[in-house]
Amino acid sequence: MKDPLIDKVALITGGGSGIGAAAARALSAHGATVAITGRRRDRLEAVVAAITSAGGHAVAIQSDVADETSACAAVAEAVAQLGRLDIVINSAGVNEAGGIGTLDLAGWRKVIDINLWGTIYTCKAALPHLRAAGGGDIINISSTAGRRAAGLFASYATSKHAVNGFTESIRQELGGENIRVCVIEPGATETEIAGSVSDPAWAAMMQQHVSKAGAMQADDIAEAIIFTLTLPRRANVSQLLIRPTTDTAPM
């Protein structure tokens, strides 16, 4: 049976590292062509080089999803280079430490602009192209923080709760157009997200959390993405919560 991802075109934000890079490699291995976006061109080009050396096809597009013009231009450039768009994966994300009394508004805006608005900008720009393709898939990467808030990382929890609500809303809106929409909520996964936390002490704590024994790897989440994309079109995984086996905390 032909792999359903062969000849599909995917756009992945935050594709230079972590879950975004792992998803790019996984989709390419299944025959998809991939456009990855992010702010660090050197990291994007390294991922593209790895995909190309493995026989895949990928392009790098430098972009800042927090900027509406840049985010929309990245979608347009991906379509211009690759001819169509079938899959959108919103993986770009950052974190910050602090709550309403301890994190300044610039920190709140940074997290919400990237995690939420970047997702909205990209989905809005991609929608006409998904419709032109006759349907497609949108996968938004959220977090267990989108289910259970953490006062120490309030802006992150706020942004991820909003991503969950946004994703379910557009799932209801677009399902009748053969556009499947899914939110994936990973628990502790070893990525570079701690590097976005400006306070060194809290960054170290976050790094310890995501790299602790039993934490998941970005490739684990990429496999979940492949699972959602390769189901029959009649089946839409709308919400997928993935935790480390050792995480026994309640919802």
Please give a structural write-up:
The chain is α/β, with parallel strands linked by helices. The protein has a single domain, classed as 3-Layer(aba) Sandwich (Rossmann fold). Helix content is 45%, strand content 17%. The protein has helices at residues 18-29, 41-53, 68-82, 105-132, 154-174, 200-210, 218-230, and strands at residues 9-13, 33-38, 58-62, 87-90, 136-141, 179-186, 189-190, 216-217, 239-242. The protein has a seven-stranded parallel sheet with strand order 3-2-1-4-5-6-9, with helices on both faces. Helix 4 links the parallel strand 4 and strand 5. The radius of gyration is 17 Å and the shape is globular. It comes from Novosphingobium piscinae. This is SDR family NAD(P)-dependent oxidoreductase. Belongs to the short-chain dehydrogenases/reductases (SDR) family.
Q: What's the short story on this structure?
A:
It comes from Novosphingobium piscinae. By secondary structure, the protein is an alpha/beta fold.
CATH superfamily: NAD(P)-binding Rossmann-like Domain
Determine the N-to-C terminus distance.
Answer: 39 Å
Average pLDDT works out at 96
Find the CATH topology. Rossmann fold
Q: How many helices does DSSP assign?
A: 7
For the record, what CATH class applies? Alpha Beta
Query: Given the helix and strand composition, which structural class is it?
Result: alpha/beta
Helix and strand element order: EHEHEHEHEHEEHEHE
Strand content: 15-25%
Strand order of the largest sheet: 3-2-1-4-5-6-9
Count of folded domains: 1
Shape label: globular
Low-confidence stretches: none
C-alpha-based Rg, rounded: 17 Å
CATH architecture tag: 3-Layer(aba) Sandwich
Helix content: 40-55%
What's the count of strands? 9
For the sheet with most strands, the description reads: 7 strands, parallel
